Fold this sequence. Notes:
The structure holds two protein chains of two kinds.
Chain A: E1 3-14, E2 17-28, E3 32-36, H1 43-50, E4 58-63, E5 66-67, H2 72-78, E6 79-82, H3 94-103, H4 109-122, H5 138-150, E7 156-160, H6 168-183, E8 187-191, H7 195-201, E9 204-209, E10 212-217, H8 219-224, E11 229-236, E12 253-259, E13 262-268, H9 274-283, E14 288-295, H10 298-306
Parallel strand pairs in A: 3-8, 3-9, 6-7, 7-8
Antiparallel strand pairs in A: 1-2, 1-4, 4-5, 9-10, 11-13, 11-14, 12-13
Helix pairs in contact in A: 3-4, 3-5, 4-5
Chain B: H1 2-15, H2 18-24, H3 26-38, H4 50-76, H5 78-89, H6 94-123, H7 133-158, H8 161-178, H9 190-195, H10 200-214, H11 220-241
Amino acid sequence: MTKAIDVDNLNKSYKNFKAVNNLTFHVTSGEIVGLLGPNGAGKSTTINILSTVLKPDSGSVMISGHDFKNSKREIKKLLGIVPQDLAIYEEISAEKNVRFFASLYGLSGSKLDKQVREALEIVGLTERRKDKPKNFSGGMKRRLNIACAIAHKPDIIIMDEPTVGIDPQSRNHILESIKKLRSNGATVIYSTHYMEEVEEIADRVIIMNDGTVIASGTVKEICKRFEHQITYTLNVDTTTQLNKDSFGRISGIQKFEINANNIVLIADSRASNLNDIFGTLFSFGCKLQSMSSEEASLETVFLDLTGKKLRD
Amino acid sequence: MNFIKIAKRDLINILHNPALIISNTILPLVLIGVLGFVTKSNFGTTLINSYDYQGVNMLILSVALFVAITTSNAFMEEKVMRGNMRIAYAPVRKFEMVMSKIVSSYVFISICYGLLVPFCQYVLGLNMGGGNFMWFLLLLNVLGFFGCCFGAMFCCIFRSEEQANSIMQIPLFIFIFLGSVLIRIHRLGKVVNMIANISPVKWVVGCSYQIIYDNDLHLLMQVIAGLLALSFLCLLVCGLLFKPEEYV
């Protein structure tokens, strides 16, 4: 399998903030890679570097064998970028938008006509091609944003949260479009906060935090590392008597958090420690109101790896 | 060629902005009408009337003031900036990105003032130099080109349309003030008059009066050369400071 993208020891800082920190990963041709990470993890900076508009401080990027440092124009021709913000002109028709951006990649004549038509068809905007995006719904604008990125048939498509703020139908259509693009041979990097999207379409997942890769592999492989992990969420009438050590002595408890009347316990499912947990609760005078348990999923693994602290 | 495609798109984007069209067509005529009327009593009626005088001054003022804003709008106005962002991802040289904005706004203002000057001369009957009006128009065009480069430079320095527009008003008003377009500053003393020589607007005003009223073209080439040199400096700053990532 050939490497479509090869990133090695990439660094980028903004003043004192290290946005990308010794980042190393690769993407194989023809795969869909989900790029996950909390806000500020360095995903967008990485995408901007890959799309060649942002210069890294150090490190190397090879895209389809082209070196980032001296082949920017060649690399740009291979890429289709779907930025998080809508990169379209609202005052001209959808078709004119796609046509204009595709023409910048050297397409013209009947080839341009054909590829513009195909791109609009993939995103389901053929019927509305003559309308101006200013009259489109959020989902349609997002789909047009994708059409503008794929009309020149790029080898590699980089998508930065392409489904933010849209209805489930549009989201489903976008995900189906991405699968179709992959089946046509494209390599896709898909950055998102929606775990279920990654679970649905990604062959492999890269989880970033603090500008570096903290986990990578298939969803199964990542979750397997946590296959014996179970998360209990207990709702009790009061937690005032509980303290930091309340659950620490119970065997198999890996982490716990007390948040208002909720207690979240991450435990080893093999430890059979539910009796001890209930016993501890009762000994501290807590009455159990409700309880749920969740086995390791991409979301719980993600939260476990990146922490639950709010990010700006 | 991508440059032509982008410049064409930028020109169409400008044409979709009614504020820019009004600023470069109707507004100069309104200014001529209002100021011509207000200053009517200061002029005689035979040789130069207030409308002739304000006609020349207000066209120069409009080019000096509104052209730079036209370019900064083409460059970074919120609506077009989104589309421009995608141009940054395409295989387009960064200088093509900057130059397309300058060229498109220059073409736009050339059309606007190319219509305005003959309109003032032949329809409104204002004195734009009679047979010499083409030289006056050429001068306005070169001042317009400088305005385009100046506007682009401020976008490259301040990286936002809002900031660029508000900050560049300061040097533009200084140029206009020193150019005696709105208020005559010759009574403010030798020092002010000497400082006034740094204003490109003053060069254009002086040269225009010579062309229109004295039928004298000897300053024309010098002023054009000066304006082009300043434009080149602005382009140099653009080349050094513009980063496509500013769109992203």
